Each structure stands twice: as C-alpha cells, then as structure tokens.
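Example 3.2
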Amino acid sequence: MATYHQTNTVLNSLMSQFRGTSGLTKTDLTGLISLGQSSISSDNFKDAYGRSISDMVGKTVVRYLKSTLELPEIYRDGFEYGGIMRKIRILPNTMKQNESVKIGENGYTPNPLGIHKFSYQEKFFGDFDAWSDITTVPDDLFKKSFHSGEEYGAFIDGVMGAIASNFTAHTNLMGKTAVTNFIGEKINANNGVINLRVEYNTATGQSLTMAQCLTDQGFLKYAGMRIRNIYNYMHDDNTIFNVGHIATNTPDGEMLVYMLTDFVSAYNTYLLNGVSIFNTDFSKLPYYREMDKWQAPNTTANAIPSFAGNSAINITTASGHDVTMSGIIGIIADREAIANTSEDIYVTTDRYNGARYTNYTHGAVEQYVNDLDEQGVIFTIADTNTANTRTAKK
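Structure, written as tokens:
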C-alpha cells in the first residue's frame, strides 16, 4: 500500500528559505522523496487565517505573487504510472562462447537445450507527499471596503488567483526539492560527484579556493571542458555514474542538465564574450535549465543572494543522511532519475450558509521519485572534501 506523508511543515520551511525570508537551514527531507523504500511520516497539517482591510480608500490595486509551473520535464502522467510505480530493469547479459567454431573439437558436446536465465531487478516506489491550503472567503464582510461591485469582484478574483498561484509556487518548490535531494543522495553515496576545483588544482599545481574559481579564466575553461566531456561519457554504456553500478546510458533527449546561474554567468562573462557551451550546445537540449539556487539564496535571512548560499544544500536526505555542502554548480542526470510520477491537484469547496462563508481547499497528493540506479553527476567547486560533508544514517 502506498505511504502518504503530510509535508506541509517542511514545505513551509523550504519556501521560507527559498524566498530568502530565512537563511539556509538544515532541512529534514526524510521520506519526502520516494527512493523505492518505506519512510517515516512528517508532522500533521496546521493552518491559520487572518486579514484586515481599510473601510474606504480612493483606489484599490489587487496584487499577488504570480507563479507558473516550472520543471515540467520531471512530471509524468499519473494515470499511466498509477498509485505505486514498479520499475523493472533488465540487466545486460555477459557474452558466452560461440559454439559454432567448436564443432569437431575433442570432447565437445553441444547442449542446445541449456537454460540461460536473464537477470533483472525490481524496485517499487510508493511514497506520496500531501499538503493543502484552506482559505475562508466570506460573502459580504469586505463589501463596505470597496466602491463598486466590479472593484469588489476584482478583489475576490485576486484572492482566488493568489491562492492558486501560491499553490503552484509550492508545487514548483517540491520539484526543485526532488532535485536537491538527488544531489544530497549522490553526495552521501560518493557516486558521480566531481570536484572540478580539486581536479584543476591537481592538474595545474595551483591552489584556487572556491571563491577564486568563478573569476579564473583558466579554471572556467577547464570546467567547461570537463562538463562537456562528462556529458558525452554518459551517452555510452557505463556502470560509473549510478549508485548500483548498473550498466546504463542516456541519450541526448533524456538528459536533464541543470546549471547554477552564478557559474553560467561567470563562464559567459569571463570567456568568449558570452558565447559558450551553455548558450549554444546545452541550450539546444530539451531539458537544459539554469537554476538560481538549490535551496536558499543565502545563509542569513533576507540577505542579498550570494554564491555561497545559492550553491549550498543543508539537508537530511530522504534516506536519512545529513548532507551539507556549498559550491555545487551543476547536475546532469537521466530524466528517469528525478521524476514526479503521480500528481493529483484538486480544489474543493465547503459552504456554510449559516455564517455565509465558503472554505476553498486547494490540495495536492504527489509522488516525487529519485532513482539512484539511473545516471547522475554532480559538479562542485567545494572547498571541503565530500567525505567531510556527510554523516551516517540517523
């Protein structure tokens, strides 16, 4: 049976960090992303409402934060994928002797009816996240604050638009959190994590720090070369870039390429007058995107965004491991590695005629998946070693 987690508490915390209202904070994602195993539930949902409006004004302008769906590439058809997703991976066979050239050899006896089993792996994903937003809209309470029915109607439309848009923003955040958790899981497993700063310093004998990398032309050239090369390597059959070390490959059309805006801007500014692999080769890919941050814009509440904050994650992964790292500049992954396989977004109304108000409930029950047996590479320029950024499972 599928497992449902009430995720509103952690979602509210993530949104506060994402908008910069609070600084980068250790966030527990245990059970939030389905890894193919059962996980614990989060706190129960709580909601509160409060608002005050002046009685009479000259002109009313209704404004709210508008959001549109981001990362559509990770979403799948919920009817197609169902309640619990089962992924069966057929593993490649090893080659056997060609018996056609052994005919006539002493001692050779053919066995045409021998059993040669193929190998496969089966994995189930059944964890779902659930959250909702409930808003009470009274029939006439606010009417005396407006000059006309049209003005009041615009206000109500604004309220409903703000609710829907805010819900979309939280849906977007969950998709980005699935990316953040995948980064954390890979760092914890120490698989496919490439520290470009360490590689460059080793190759050149330099001692660049993380802060110096974004303004060093030599490093930026090296980083662009390595990212492009790794992208090409992932096209070929390999067992390197997934945690299970299963033979796999990813074609161009199924590759997610998410790069941090700070790094791309530095690359485009200091090299080639803005002509680079990021706005030529990669920009042509269907799933290339720049990400302005992974979790929060800074480590301090309401501070100006910084590379140290934008490039950092500070989480307890869905598998229960603490991972903290700054200097993450990009990720390349198979589209099957990060996905939303079931999305149920709904709006319901509950009418109370006695008090003349309506409760509008926007709800979501969704499944976000990280499959670590699919390919994924994390690029960093971190000053710390990967081994120092992770802890044992709680």
